[in-house]
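Lecture notes, unit on binding sites. The following record was shown on slide 14. It pairs a sequence with adenosine-5'-diphosphate.
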Amino acid sequence: MSGVAAEFGELYGAGPDGVWAAPGRVNLIGEYTDFNEGFVLPLALPHTAVAAVSRRDDGVLRLHSGDVDGGIVRLDVAGLEPGGGGPGGGWAAYPAGVVWALREAGHPVGGADVHLASTVPTGAGLSSSAALEVVTALALSELYGLGLSGPEIARIAQRAENAFVGVPCGIMDQMASACAAEGHALFLDTRDLSYRQVPFDLAAVGLRLLVVDTRVKHALGDGAYAERRAGCEAGARALGVRALRDVDVEQLPDALGRLTDETVRRYVRHVVSDNDRVARTIALLDAGDPRAVGPLLVEGHASLRDDLRVSCPELDLAVEAAVEAGALGARMTGGGFGGSAVVLVEDSSAEDVAKAVRGAFERAGYAEPGLFAAVPSAGARRVG
Ligand code: ADP
Ligand code: MG
């Protein structure tokens, strides 16, 4: 952390006003449910975006990332417009978008110097983008005395990504990064952003959650996400509900019978059944039976692969190889088309499962996957 503050001093000639951190996340279950006003159950990773920030009131925003080539990006806050990250290229749009979204919401943010460094892998489906947005929003909220709550910070961050960067993401990533708690998963109702911390201290019960980064870069900006979203909205309209969240799993057979479009029917089946899987997962965790979550992960993966069709061969292989090697369960996590999978394993078999996944990738001729344990960690906070 102090490394980031020292780098800030070298860049800008004086130490920062403060240092903040915001984590990346993995989603345990509930995928493509957030834009259907449904349920999700993410947890924060130990990997964080760290930002050293100083307030300045002359209308100038200076941005620097230690993780990308290029120098300091200098922007005029009054001139910030959606679609323009400035001369520094794409990445600066994330923090600049947060400043824009704060000002749009009526908050008097008059400028800042920002230096960022992140340990969240980018493009791996672990929400490095949300970590960047949330850490920026939290720092500015504190430096400008805005007193924004976790959900308010998440909303600002999502607006930055949707409207300024131009990526149509839901609210899960930003809420997880802003509001998660150590040793817990975050049960989030995306309709009203109410949430509850669900005990998820795996180490205490001899379990581990592995993340398998397939190294296949997902591209949520392409049409697939928008197409799924439009299909779900069409399903809700056809069923006469505000959002697919309003269809209970008991009503699913009847709902499917009323849908004529085969694609929409598959999307509806995924969303309604995955919302139900979130509820069943939480019931198991509350009952102290985390091992029983394994089969729900496998079911969820099949639904994403066969009904929503957002998986890819590398994700399918990671899940298959892990389960075959004795994992309790596994599924793709995040937007799909690459990115990462989560694997629930007994501590005692974690090494064997990891080896089996690596071996399967090697035999298939895929790049070596990244593997690490997802220890449920704290949400965004001040660290210096
Ligand atoms: P994900 O959120 O799954 O990691 P995204 O495509 O949504 O993938 O976001 C990745 C983008 O976020 C990167 O291409 C880059 O523009 C930006 N980004 C993430 N981390 C950093 C960082 N440390 N420095 C600069 N830009 C970053
Ligand atoms: Mg992202």
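Take-home: The mean pLDDT is 95.
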